[in-house]
Here is the input.
Amino acid sequence: MNQEKQLLEQALSELQARRENTDREAYGPLIEGAEALIQKYGAGGAGTKMGDETLAALYFLTAELLFEKDLATRKATRGKNFENEAKALEYYNKAVALQDKEEYSYELWNFLSSAGHKEEGIAALERFIERTGGTAKVLSRAAEYILMYADSEDTGAIQKSLDYFYRAVEMEPDRYETYWAYWTDLEEAVDVCPRLMKEAFFCLEELIRLSLPENAENHDTLGNRYFELAGLYNKQQEYEKALEVGKKGLAAGGADWGYDILIELLIGMNRFEEAVPYCHNRIESLIGRPGTEPSLARVFFRLAHCYHMINQPAQAEKFYLAFENGQDIVPSEYRDEYLLYYKNSRKLWERIKRWFRRWFRRG
Here is the structure.
C-alpha cells in the first residue's frame, strides 16, 4: 500500500470518529476537511494512486456529511429544500460509479427520496439491481416503493414490484424486514387492487412464522400480526377464520386494540352475548388513559347494543346513557336504539318529578 493511500485512509478514519461525536448541525468543519481531501486526492489530484475503494469511501462520507447536515438544518428551520443538494448528489454518484456497494446505492436512494425525488430514488435502486443482480435489502426496498407509488391499474409497475419482492424472498427467505415493508404497502393496496390479496396473506403468514417463540427477536409482534391476518380474513368474509386467528392474537399477548377486531367480528356475526366480555375487557383497557375518550365511547355504545340484542334493557340503558350529550357522539348505526333509551329515560324522569310534585302538594 502506498504512503498517500495510507494517509488518506487514516484521515477518513479520523473524520468518521469525529462524525460519531459531533452533532449534525455542527458538521461544517468536518465537511471542509472532507472536501479538502477530495481536492487533494480526487479527480485531478492523486486519485489514480488511491484505488477505487478508498476514493469511493471518501466521496460517500462527504455526501453523507452534507446530507445529514441538511437534514438537521431542515428540521430546525422547518424548510423543504436541501442547501447542499447538488453537491451531495454529485458525491453520491461518484461513490456509486467507483464501487457497486449496496450501502452506496441504498443511501443514494434515501437521499433522493428525502429530497423529494422519488422516481430518481427508485431508478438508483434499479440501476444497482441491473448491474449486480441486487441484494435482498435493495430488492425489497425497490419492491416496496414501486408499489407505494403505482397506480392501481398500472399492471406493469405492480408486476415489477412483485418480481422484485419474490426475488428478495428467494435470496433471504427469513428476512423479517422484507415481508414487513411489503405488508405495510399491501395493507391498504388490497382495497383498490384485490389481485394483491395473495401476497398480503403470504406476507402475514411469513411474519407470523418469523415471530413465533423460537424467533425471540420478533416475538413481541406476534399478537398484532394475528390481528392483521384476522382483518384480511374479515375482508374476505371468512369470519370464522378471522375469529380464530383474532383469538390467537389475544392469546399471544397482542395489543388491546385486538379486542375491537373481535367485537366487530362477533357483532357482525350476530353473536352478541360472546361480544359482551370482550367489550368489558376493552373498556377496562381504555379507562383512565388520556386521549382514549372517542374509542371508549364507541365501545360503550357497542356494549349497549349487545345488551339490547340479548334483551337486557337495563344494562343497555346504563351504557347508552353513560355519556352526557351522547347524541352528539353515538355512531349512526346505533342512533335509533340510543334515542329509544334516551326518550324512555326522560319519560321516567318526568314521571318521578310529577310524583314528587303531587307528594309535596298533598303534604
About this structure: The two ends are 113 Å apart (CA to CA). Confidence is low (pLDDT under 50) at residues 44-48, 351-360. The chain has 17 helices and no strands. Residues 335-362 form the longest helix (28 residues).
